[in-house]
Design a protein that fits this description.
Elements lengths: L10 E4 L2 E4 L14 E6 L5 H16 L5 E5 L3 H11 L4 E5 L3 H14 L2 E5 L1 H16 L8 H18 L3 E16 L6 E10 L11 E10 L4 E9 L9 E5 L15
Parallel strand pairs: 3-7, 3-9, 4-5, 4-6, 6-7
Antiparallel strand pairs: 1-2, 7-8, 9-10, 10-11
Amino acid sequence: MVENTNSPSRIHFESAGAVRRPLFAKAENTSSFLKMGIMGFAGSGKTYTATSIAIGLHKLAGVRKPIFFLDTETGSDWVKPRVEAAGVELFTAKTRAFRDLLEAVPEAEASASLLLVDSLTHFWVELTDAYMRTKKRTRLQFEDWAYLKTEWRKFTDLFVNSKLHVIVSGRAGFEYDYSTDEETGKKQLEKTGIKMKAEGEMGYEPSLLVLMEREMDMATKTNKHSRNFRIPCSITSCRTSSASTSGAGTSASIPRAPA
């Protein structure tokens, strides 16, 4: 008898002994729900873009359930007329409590067509602040990160595995690293990239990550917004493609979800 070190689902036993089933099967699309992250600095258009995608996805799926908006600021007040004008019901909850973030996903999975979270940054800040108050600390220490990452993983597991379209928005922040000056040999701090202000691995969780940017046209004194679409991989080697708010650029087909 050959020792079974594989999943039982891939092994069946015959009189001649253990026979391995094929490891590979024909490829199928097993991801039918959008898991999207939108990050950007203030005024870059995160809430507007998230709402536009939510309305479009709701209509594409042809569902009757409402959109749920977990709001840490006042974004839901601003988009409410626009969502209702599109003939879509909007339900909101205004909170920054991390426990509410955890409860929001299963509730939306049961009763909504899509969940909007804006801003995810506030839930991460609330989690870390509450932890520091409990420990009576003003700064996080190295040993604190294991607990905080474990707690945050409760949300990311829900985010990734839920049978629900989820769009999360978060504030952007710069990443820094030290480099050595070739002439002086001194180390200096330099900006090396941009990431969402949340738990450090959050940028890898969405299936589609969007960086919103705002540019000022000095001639007309008007703002121009652009979106950089990123497929999560190594932060330093992600391939990006740009699309302006006029609609040019890449497009994607999203499977219909059950009503």
